[in-house]
Amino acid sequence: MKLQSVQLESGTGKVSLPGHFFDMNRFFETLVSKLLKTLSQKYKEVDQYRLNHLFAYDSAHNPQRRQSPTPRPDFAILKKGQPQQLLDAKYRDLWDKSLPRDMLYQLAMYALSGVGNSATILYPVLHDLSEPQHIQVHNPLSGGLKARIYLKPINLIKVAGWIQEKNMSSLASYMEEVIAW
């Protein structure tokens, strides 16, 4: 997608801007970060939590001496200093639209990391019709349950109402319900 700018000086040149002017995914992630900061004192929210040591190059087979990748979920919820759950914000209505394979694989890796044996995608909705959805990750050989992925809606109409009313206690209670597992 190409966007064009307005030129205030005389001239015939046009400026093309690649991509989108406003990144709704980033905006939603920032909003969720602020909402998670309303949680009670028993929780601490950490943005861009680093999953150190999840992946590591085999030192005997890393001729380029590359750094091991370090995944970073959008958020971690800590209780008493220990990570309890990993969350990712996605600006996609997962109630009305299906979960893309790349999002599923990303959250499966977070869920299998050992932090709570689960991971959650938080997504925006504008109604009360959507409900949390759960995906179970099984061992394909034994069929045993390995982890869970939660798809949880955040009702932006409700959130906007509480913010407008300055009703932070209702907002905090709602966010605690959203992250409950």
User: What is the average of the pLDDT values?
Assistant: 88
What is the CATH class? Alpha Beta
Low-confidence stretches: 1-5
Report helical residue fraction. 25-40%
In DSSP terms (H or I, runs of 4 or more residues), the helix count works out at: 4
Structural class: alpha/beta
Amount of beta strand: 25-35%
Name the helix and strand elements from N-terminus to C-terminus, one letter apiece: EEHEEEHEEEHH
CATH-defined architecture: 3-Layer(aba) Sandwich
Give the C-alpha Rg: 20 Å
Number of strands: 8
User: What count of domains describes the coordinates?
Assistant: 1
Q: What is the overall shape?
A: globular
Q: Key terms for this structure?
A:
alpha/beta, Trna Endonuclease, Chain: A, domain 1, 4 helices, 181 residues
